[in-house]
UniProtKB/TrEMBL annotation:
BP GO terms, sorted: cardiac muscle cell action potential involved in contraction; regulation of ventricular cardiac muscle cell membrane repolarization
SMART domains reported for this sequence: IG
Residue spans of biased composition, Polar residues class: 1-22
Organism for this UniProt entry: Electrophorus electricus
Alphabetical list of InterPro entries matching this protein: Ig-like_dom, Ig-like_dom_sf, Ig-like_fold, Ig_sub, Ig_V-set, Myelin_P0-rel
Name used for this protein in its record: Ig-like domain-containing protein
SUPFAM superfamilies assigned to the protein according to its UniProt record, in alphabetical order: Immunoglobulin (SSF48726)
Length: 238
């Protein structure tokens, strides 16, 4: 079987590079192929555990361990397996061709269920009622015979905790309150400043009006006084 073929491969023939595993035996594929339509060199098979390849789960909960695959050249008898911490196979799947459901699904661990669908290139599994022993790295391996035996993989890390950590927002609230208080004080200061300027302008306008009025009264009084003095100084004719 495909599983037996992988198990018989010598350990020295596997070379890890990040999340991909490449066989180094002579005659092995380098994992690239020429696209039949565009003529460009592409990675023939790609495995992915998502943009966020880790999860923190509460002890006793059910967890989805995701994995998807993408092949530019198509698949034929795609062999796939999940491994836990590189020391044990959890399940194996064989998909004959594109968009076909698996012909053979073998599960080797309790509380594990295969929930993938080849129509969506989905190879995910669910672990029911996780325990602390389930924490670790889960690696999904894919092997497409069209690539002459090259292996690909992606890693998903699971953390198991007693309960989800409660985020302490005290510091955040203090900062937000402080910033809000500063903004409020600044607004009050600007309002008081504008009000004070308005009052001072009004006072200046009233003072100007008073000065103009008093100046007019003084001029009138002076004119009247001058007229009286002039009339008294005129001599009488004999």
């Amino acid at each position: 079987s495909a599983l037996q073929t992988v198990q018989k491969a010598p350990v020295s023939s596997w070379q890890r590079e990040g999340t991909a595993t490449h066989p180094t035996a002579e005659g092995g594929s380098e994992g690239t192929a020429t696209h039949p339509h565009c003529g460009c060199v592409v990675e023939a098979l790609e495995m992915s555990t998502g943009k966020i390849p880790f999860l923190e789960a509460v002890n006793g909960s059910d967890v989805l361990i995701p994995c998807t695959y993408l092949s530019c050249i198509g698949i034929k008898n795609l062999y796939f397996k999940w491994e836990f911490n590189d020391n044990g196979t959890m399940l194996t799947v064989m998909i004959p061709i594109d968009n076909a459901e698996p012909m053979d699904v073998n599960i080797y661990r309790e509380r594990v269920e295969y929930v993938g669908s080849s129509k969506g290139n989905n190879l995910s599994m669910v672990i029911w009622n996780v325990t602390f022993e389930d924490a670790g790295q889960y690696t999904c391996f894919g092997k497409n015979p069209k690539e002459r035996g090259k292996n690909h993989s992606a890693i998903f890390t699971l953390y198991v905790v007693d309960e989800r950590e409660v985020v302490d927002n005290t510091l955040k609230l203090i900062i937000v309150s402080g910033v809000g208080g500063c903004i409020a004080l600044l607004m009050i200061f600007m309002l008081l400043k504008n009000f004070t300027i308005y009052v001072l302008d009004k006072i200046k306008e009233k003072n100007k009006e008073c000065l103009v009025t008093s100046s007019g009264i003084d001029n009138t009084v002076n004119s009247l006084s001058g007229s009286r003095v002039t009339s008294k100084a005129t001599p009488k004719k004999a």
